[in-house]
Design brief:
Strand order of the largest sheet of chain A: 1-2
CATH topology of chain B: MetI-like fold
Largest interface: A-B, 89 and 92 residues
CATH superfamily of chain A: MetI-like
Order of helices and strands of chain A: HEEHHHHHHHHHHHH
Largest sheet of chain A: 2 strands, antiparallel
Number of helices of chain A: 13
Number of helices of chain B: 13
CATH architecture of chain B: Orthogonal Bundle
Strand content of chain A: under 5%
CATH topology of chain A: MetI-like fold
Oligomer: heterodimer
Distance between the termini of chain A: 36 Å
CATH class of chain B: Mainly Alpha
Largest sheet of chain B: none
Shape of chain A: globular
Structural class of chain A: mainly alpha
Shape of chain B: globular
Number of strands of chain A: 2
Radius of gyration of chain B: 23 Å
Number of domains of chain A: 1
Structural class of chain B: mainly alpha
Strand content of chain B: under 5%
Radius of gyration of chain A: 24 Å
Helix content of chain A: over 70%
Low-confidence stretches of chain B: none
Distance between the termini of chain B: 41 Å
Low-confidence stretches of chain A: none
């Protein structure tokens, strides 16, 4: 009994530095900001009910930012997962050079967005290489970064950057499947595609759920590339939630910020809960 | 025969994808020897002016570099220390509320900066840290990712080993620093690299917390040098990539192992 208490006490003590900082910077201010969303004024003294929420939903900038972020996830995440799954399947059978290619595809993961953006600008800006090439061919040129092409460009950058992370997770998922399953299928005369369709992919379902969550989380980080490419006021097709937040930080509109943060929190929270529930049901 | 054709096809396919990684790197390297403001595939005029400008002539590029390095190192050191202690607690000690707290840690970990920055901001403002580097460093030290990752990693270490050390008279901190951490190389290395990369690349926090662009770290500063000499831009791109490149070249295997361990079961 006494040992148990001592054990618990040591646990709390070790976790204490983290718990203080985590509660102080993340938990407590978040809970406080929930109350704040129902008030007005910088002190948050006047209770205004749902007015801030109406305000946010009525804001064209917020709707644009939310729609763009949603559209980005909807298109980017499946594409990213498809590309990294294909690469993982190609790299899974050990062959000479497999680990070289894996490292190569992981490399964009650590490459600073600032360095990448310099190259993107060199290729896609108004006087960039692509336009030089197009005008050499006599084709019309386009400002790729300051037009609706910015959106596919940003999607491509997102896939390029996060492919390595998903690839490693897919490889881990693939190696968790007992080799005997696939060998048995092959000895029964199943083709590569049949084995993939009926054995490998179904057994990978838990991995899919996790990678889906990770990919959605990482998609929010694409704001970095969006900001470094387009600045504070990019083409409206890549005006993301973080752009909206930054503007409101500038305007000191803390209630709007809190409402927006709370809404994003709720959406992700529900999404993650649903995915984990589905995953748990799948495993039963 | 068929297998041979498959592996040839696979190689072609992989090389094609590999080009997307190799070309930007080669482009940056080659064009760092260029001069003038016009983009071209190969420098029209080869020159060392970009290197000279960044490394010798003007100090502010290197000052930004060291600033960013200091910032990132402080965050990595703090985050690794704090989350080692807490990860150890969550993994190997039983205390009331442990699983509930860990669930909250996971939920907050999944939140993007759009959510956590607002919470951090209120506290930073109350503490009077706006405009200072402490605003960038302190919240990042307590970010929940490290606790999550290290708990996952420590969970794979058998309790018997720790109990044996305890019988030999080792205290909790000795066990953590002498046994658990050295055994968790891949996890610790991944935490260090991923935290470093995130800190080195920070864009959201400086935009929100710093009011003068003079204080911006390298990551944001680079994006504001539009219309510059191509050679200088590319040298800056290399400068920005250098620390993470070196870390990655040494530890890519550990990073892959650590990412694999980060799955939630």
């Amino acid at each position: 009994m006494k040992l148990k208490t001592r054990n618990a006490l040591a646990g709390y003590l070790l976790a204490l530095p983290f718990l203080i900082g985590f509660a102080g910077f993340y938990l407590i201010p978040f809970l406080w900001s929930i109350r704040f969303t129902f008030t007005s004024g910088s002190g948050g003294t006047a209770f205004v009910g749902l007015r801030n929420y109406m305000d946010i939903f009525g804001s064209a900038a917020f709707r644009l930012a939310a729609w763009n972020t949603f559209r980005f996830i909807l298109i980017g995440v499946p594409l990213l997962m498809l590309v990294s799954l294909v690469l993982a399947l190609l790299l899974f059978d050990k062959f000479r050079g497999a680990s070289f290619f894996r490292s190569l595809f992981m490399y964009p993961l650590v490459l600073p967005a600032a360095s990448v953006v310099i190259v993107v600008q060199a290729f896609f800006s108004n006087d960039g290489l692509l336009n030089q090439f197009l005008s050499w061919l006599g084709l019309p040129i386009e400002d790729w970064i300051q037009s609706e092409y910015a959106f596919p460009l940003l999607i491509a950058l997102y896939i390029w950057k996060n492919c390595g992370y998903d690839l490693v997770l897919f490889l881990a998922g693939l190696s968790a499947i007992p080799r005997e399953y696939r060998e048995a299928a092959a000895s029964e005369g199943a083709s590569y595609w049949q084995t993939l369709r009926y054995i490998t992919l179904p057994l990978m379902t838990p991995t899919f759920f996790f990678i889906l969550i990770v990919s959605i989380i990482n998609s929010f980080k694409s704001f970095r590339e969006a900001y470094l490419l387009g600045g504070a006021n990019p083409h409206e097709s890549i005006y993301m939630l973080q752009h909206f937040m930054n503007n409101n930080f500038q305007n000191l509109s803390y209630q709007r910020l809190s409402v927006a943060a709370l809404l994003v929190f709720l959406v992700i929270f529900v999404l993650v809960l649903v995915l984990f529930r589905l995953k748990a049901r799948n495993e039963r | 025969m068929k297998a041979k054709r498959f592996s040839a096809l696979r190689l072609v396919f992989l090389c094609f994808f590999g080009l997307f990684v190799v070309i930007p790197i080669l482009f940056t390297l080659v064009n760092s020897f260029s001069t003038g403001t016009a983009y071209s595939l190969l420098p029209q005029q080869w020159s060392l002016a970009g290197w000279f400008e960044v490394f010798l002539r003007r100090p502010h590029y290197l000052i930004k570099f060291w600033n960013s390095l200091f910032l990132s190192t402080a965050i990595v050191a703090g985050q690794t220390l704090v989350s080692s202690l807490a990860g150890y607690a969550f993994s190997k000690f039983r205390f009331p509320g442990r699983e509930a707290l860990f669930f909250i840690v996971i939920i907050v970990m999944m939140m993007p900066y759009q959510v956590t920055l607002v919470s951090n901001y209120f506290v930073i403002r109350e503490l009077g840290l706006m405009g200072s580097w402490a605003a960038l460093i302190i919240p990042s030290i307590f970010s929940p990712f490290g606790v999550f990752l290290l708990r996952q990693v420590f969970d794979t270490c058998p309790d018997d080993l720790l109990d044996a050390a305890r019988i030999d008279g080792a205290g909790n901190l000795t066990i953590l620093f002498r046994i658990l951490l050295p055994r968790s190389r891949a996890g610790v290395v991944s935490l260090v690299i991923l935290t470093f990369v995130d800190a080195w690349n920070m864009v959201e926090q400086p935009l929100v917390y710093l009011d003068s662009s003079y204080d911006y770290p390298l990551s944001v500063f680079l994006s504001q040098m539009n219309g510059q000499d191509v050679g200088v831009l590319c040298v800056c791109g290399i400068l920005a990539a250098l620390p993470v490149l070196l870390l990655f070249l040494y530890y890519d295997q550990d990073l892959a192992d650590g990412i694999s361990l980060s799955q939630i079961h």
